[in-house]
Design goal:
alpha/beta, 273 residues, 32% strand
Length: 273
């Protein structure tokens, strides 16, 4: 039985916990989250919640399962972990697929009642939630999230890092470029360009970030702990709408500099106010 960690500690991570139990063959040893609460309970069992830095002490033959439903976070996190850990494809026993004619990468999640027909190419780190259907000759890249009951017709080409809402239908031979968002219950009958958001029946463009420009005056700055006063002033600005704790302060980080023989930096990017 292989040890496995679940990436994430929210509701979807608990669904992945259930998926792993249904598949069998894995020993779930905990969850991974950037701001852990030390432990969480699932099915009345207490599990440790690790942060990314604590993974340095985890054996490299441990498996990782993706329990995050946001493409950009998936992409960022797996880049940090994929060279050390194994990401198995987790496929629910109820999935129907012509596996002899399907190419698949690593770290994909296929939940209950997903159906794949034939001549399909799947990349890595994609999530197919309940009852998604994928037609013939479909190509899908990496780090995409498909919510329940998405219907992908034959010949569709989907790039990377896209989010497809529940009950969306993508008609045959449509091309979906990278970083796209498709709203729930949308009917997509035209190609969707890079970083666009579409929704509706038929799906229409809502936001296009391809040609979007920021016209506000902006500034960027890097501070060190020697710039203590300026650093603290920026923390005061943040504190109006963000919880600022001791771990953000130059005093705390200066102690860490001494402990680890390293240098802490504060990167500031400001647009308008």
């Amino acid at each position: 039985m292989k040890d496995i960690l679940i990436l994430g500690a929210g509701g979807f991570a608990k669904e992945i916990h259930f998926l792993i139990r249904e598949i069998g063959g894995y020993n779930i040893i905990g969850f991974v989250h950037e701001k852990p609460t030390t432990s969480i309970y699932v099915d009345k069992i207490e599990y440790t919640v690790f942060n990314e830095f604590e993974l340095e002490n985890i054996k490299s033959d441990t498996c990782i399962a993706i329990g995050i439903g946001e493409p950009k976070i998936i992409q960022k996190t797996v880049c940090f972990l994929k060279d050390k850990f194994h990401f198995p494809n987790l496929i629910h026993p109820s999935v129907i697929a012509d596996w002899k004619n399907i190419k698949i990468g690593q770290g994909n999640i296929l939940t209950a009642k997903v159906m794949l027909t034939t001549n399909i190419e799947l990349g890595s780190f994609n999530i197919f939630n309940l009852s998604c259907t994928i037609g013939h000759d479909v190509t899908i890249g990496n780090c995409n999230v498909f919510n329940p009951r998405v219907n992908i017709s034959g010949g569709v080409n989907i790039g990377n890092n896209s989010f497809i809402g529940s009950n969306a239908t993508i008609l045959q031979y449509i091309k979906i470029e990278d970083n796209v968002i498709i709203g729930a219950s949308s009917f997509v009958n035209n190609d969707v360009e890079y970083s666009n958001t579409v929704a509706g029946v038929p799906a229409k463009k809502i936001i296009s970030t391809r040609k979007r420009e920021v016209h506000s005056i902006y500034s960027k700055l890097i501070l060190t702990t020697k710039n203590k006063k300026e650093w603290l002033n920026y923390l005061k600005i943040l504190s109006s709408d963000t919880k600022v704790d001791i771990y953000f302060t130059p005093e705390y980080l200066h102690l860490q500099e001494q402990n680890y023989n390293a240098e802490a930096e504060c990167f500031i990017f400001q647009v308008g106010n």
